Amino acid sequence: MQIKALKGMKDVLPEKVELWQYIENIMRYYAKLYGYNEIRTPVVERTELFSRGVGDSTDIVQKEMYTFKDKGGRSITLKPEGTAGVVRAFLEGNLYADTLPCKLYYINNPIFRYEAPQSGRLREHHQFGVECFGSKSPSLDAEIISLGFHLLETFELKNVRVQINSIGCEKCRPNYIKTLKEFLNTKKEFLCPDCLNRIEKNPLRVLDCKIDSCQNAIIEAPSTLNMLCEECYDHFENLKSYLIKTNIPFDINQKIVRGLDYYTKTVFEFVQSTDNGFLTVCGGGRYDNLISELGGSYTPAVGFGMGMERLIMLMPQEAKTNTNGPDIFVCNLSKENFEYSFAIIQKLRENGIVAELDHNGRSVKGQFKYANKLNAKNVLIVGGDELSRNMFKLKNMETGKEEEISIDGFEITIKNKL
Predict the structure, then answer these.
(1) What does DSSP assign to residue 121?
(2) Which band of pLDDT confidence, cut at 50, 70 and 90, is reported for residue 96?
């Protein structure tokens, strides 16, 4: 029996890898443009990192983590989100001792969640994320929202809206939670079983439930924005001001709470309207208390995570133009020229030119078909009358234009043309 990939796991085949590399290069460019440096953290962490950081009452910890015992009897988990691992590395690597703020990003970061595969979200998916440690200024909230906005703009996503909210802090949130619980207790008959459990454990998550009956029941739920303390209120007003001054369009969505316990104050999402409803392509917020909860000193922080599979799914087709293919395909008019042609492609490669030829003895017609399948930009024809005159024929596969070039210095001639 053929062994197949596990449900919710997917290969990225060679024809798609170049698109991924293109996207990764753009992400690296914007991260550096905004002053972020790359960090890479392990795929596996101690389970405690997520139960303490993400929160025992979250769906991620309760239902979705890949957790198991290793040979030493330790409970370890495939990371279900990116931030907690970066925080651990920030503490363990003593990055807090350097000049703050400390700006970090991760890319093509594998994330594992045991849930039903969704549109653009697999059990193993990948994220691009940014994390900034060491400043409580709302200007940094606005900065990373700006980074995400211009990144998605570059990828030509249509109808994407930035939605923002504030869920308060440890000063004002307890009073809001109390008020929200009182409201939810009057709506129990309309809530799903998960939301009934959330009322006591994590009532904010009821606001984010995707089930229609729950959403209809909480239309008149109290808003966090009406119960913010002065500090949180000022922070949110300043965030809005920064976004307006930098021409970042946004909506206020009082139902955004995010699915992780560590968020404080600002939360935001980038959502796109599709035929299947609204899909979130990027989400994040401020998590000022997470570092102290994981054993460090109080260090305010803000960040986001962007799902790469979902981003690719939502990109318009014209933004996914396949540029894959060799610069030059060397075509032999006779099999006797193969060794000569083999030396030619090595010479081209030594000069930084992506070159290929047929290793399977195809006919000339078959070689041209093969070059088309490879998306070769040009074909260098070796043989015939041209060869006897110390010339090659070069054909542009897009325009069909043919020209002769001298064998002497051919690699430099081709490099200049490319």
Answers:
(1) B
(2) very high
What CATH number does residue 19 fall under?
A: 3.30.930.10
Q: For residue 342, what are the domain limits?
A: 328-417
Q: What number of helices (H) and strands (E) belong to the chain? A: 16, 16
Report the domain count for the chain: 2
**CA angle at 184 for the pair 179 and 190, rounded to the nearest 5°:** 165
Residues 300 and 399 both lie in one domain? no
With left for phi above 0 and alpha for psi between -120 and 50, is residue 405 left, alpha or beta? beta
- The pTM score is 0.84
| Residues 413 and 384 reside in one and the same domain | yes
pLDDT digit string, tens, across residues 280-333: 899 999 999 999 999 999 999 999 999 999 999 998 887 776 557 899 999 999
- What CATH number does residue 401 fall under? 3.40.50.800
Burial 263-286 (b: 16+ CB within 10 A, else e): bbbbbbbbbbeeeeeebbbbbbbb
Nearest alpha-carbon partner for 311 in 151, 190, 174, 142: 151
Q: Provide the token pair at 57.
A: 């009452």
Instruction: Give residues with Cβ within 8 angstroms of 249, minimum separation 6.
Output: 161, 162
DSSP string, 7-64: TT-----HHHHHHHHHHHHHHHHHHHHTT-EE----SEEEHHHHHHHT-TTSHIIIII
| Residue of 368 and 58 predicted with greater confidence | 368
HEC readout, 166-217: ECCCCCCHHHHHHHHHHHHHCCHHHCCHHHHHHHHHCCHHHHCCCCHHHHHH
**Contact 162/145 with Cβ under 8 angstroms?**
yes
What three-state secondary structure class fits 318?
helix
Distance of CA 78 to CAs 9, 81, 128, 261, Å? 14, 9, 17, 19
Which of 328, 334, 335, 368 lies closest to 351, judged by CA?
Answer: 328
- C-alpha to C-alpha distance for 26 and 387, rounded to whole angstroms: 43
